[in-house]
């Protein structure tokens, strides 16, 4: 069995839109946008595919960072971007459709934000 090489390209948030435009112009399709908390910051991965070869653009942001939307380039990205806002509390500027915090209905506002996750996670409070 062959394991495909995972290409991860770390970039600054200021490069995001231009790098995504380049991916689109090269014929890549957006596969997913994923977010997770990592050591007090958030890692957001933008995954692309062309001819079954995956590439990932990775940005690291703090809670107060405003991330530019890529929904003007990949229209459907607004779903991922609203999810990142609603679950992590990260502001995404310029979404083509902004649900303004109502995509998900949760009992805790921004349930996966780093402060909320640490305070409410019993595994981390031992």
Entry summary:
The chain is α/β, with parallel strands linked by helices. It is built from 3 helices and 6 strands.
3D structure, described in words:
- The N and C termini lie far apart (41 Å).
- It is built from 3 helices and 6 strands, in the order βαββββαβα.
- It has a single domain, classed as Beta Polymerase, domain 2 (2-Layer Sandwich), CATH 3.30.460.
- By secondary structure, it is α/β, with parallel strands linked by helices.
- β3 and β4 form a beta hairpin.
Strand content: 25-35%
CATH topology: Beta Polymerase, domain 2
What is the helix/strand order?
EHEEEEHEH
Mean pLDDT: 91
The CATH class label is Alpha Beta
- What is the CATH superfamily classification? NADH:ubiquinone oxidoreductase Nqo5 subunit
Query: Quick one: overall form?
Result: globular
Radius of gyration: 15 Å
Structural domains: how many:
1
The helix count comes to 3
CATH architecture title: 2-Layer Sandwich
| Main sheet makeup | 4 strands, mixed
Q: Biggest sheet: strands side by side, in what order? A: 1-4-3-2
């Amino acid at each position: 069995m062959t394991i495909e090489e995972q290409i991860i390209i770390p970039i600054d948030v200021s490069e995001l839109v231009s790098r995504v435009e380049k991916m689109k112009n090269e014929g890549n399709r957006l596969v997913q946008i994923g977010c997770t908390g990592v050591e007090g910051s958030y890692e957001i991965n933008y995954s692309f595919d062309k001819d079954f070869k995956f590439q990932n653009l990775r940005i690291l942001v703090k809670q107060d960072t405003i991330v530019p939307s890529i929904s003007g380039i990949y229209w459907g990205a607004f779903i991922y971007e609203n999810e990142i806002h609603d679950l992590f509390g990260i502001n995404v500027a310029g979404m083509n459709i902004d649900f303004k915090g109502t995509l998900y209905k949760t009992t805790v506002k921004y349930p996966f934000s780093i402060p909320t996750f640490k305070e409410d996670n019993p595994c981390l409070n031992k």
